[in-house]
Amino acid sequence: MSFNLTDLYRESIVEAAQAPRHHGQLKKKNATVELHNPSCGDVLVLDGYFENNKLVDVAFSGYGCTISQASASLMTDQVLGQEISEIKDEVMLFSNLITDKLNQAEKDRLGDCIMLEGVKEFPARIKCATLAWKAIYQLIENYEGQK
């Protein structure tokens, strides 16, 4: 039995894009960011609520392709409830994953985000896959700048 990794990757992305996500505006928030991907027109808006140096709640809205929606869904699962410094580390790990700078042990540590390594098969979609991760980093920067 052989596996087609491209098909497996595509199935995983579609599944993640359809996963329940926290859409819409937060009633209680202390940071907001809006990012655009000019190459395809994706728009991602993140609202976050931070307390005691942790991300307590996050919601995203906007629109985008399946890959950017899948990435936003996975990103919210990865970072919710984490310390700000841990989130920044996750963003850097994800960036290194996409650019192939990680060793296998570090890749295994990322759990569900590993499937996004498949985005390298579609280089034009790297910006789509990284948009949510850039947005969460910028959201933290905005929050820290207000403090």
TrEMBL record:
Domain NIF system FeS cluster assembly NifU N-terminal as annotated: residue spans: 9-128
SUPFAM superfamilies: SufE/NifU (SSF82649)
GO molecular function, one term: iron ion binding
Sections of the chain in a coiled coil: none
Signal peptide: none
GO BP, sorted A to Z: iron-sulfur cluster assembly
InterPro entries: NIF_FeS_clus_asmbl_NifU_N
Transmembrane segments: none
Domain of life the protein comes from: Bacteria
Family membership noted in the UniProt record: Belongs to the NifU family.
Protein name: SUF system NifU family Fe-S cluster assembly protein
Species for this entry: Lactobacillus mulieris
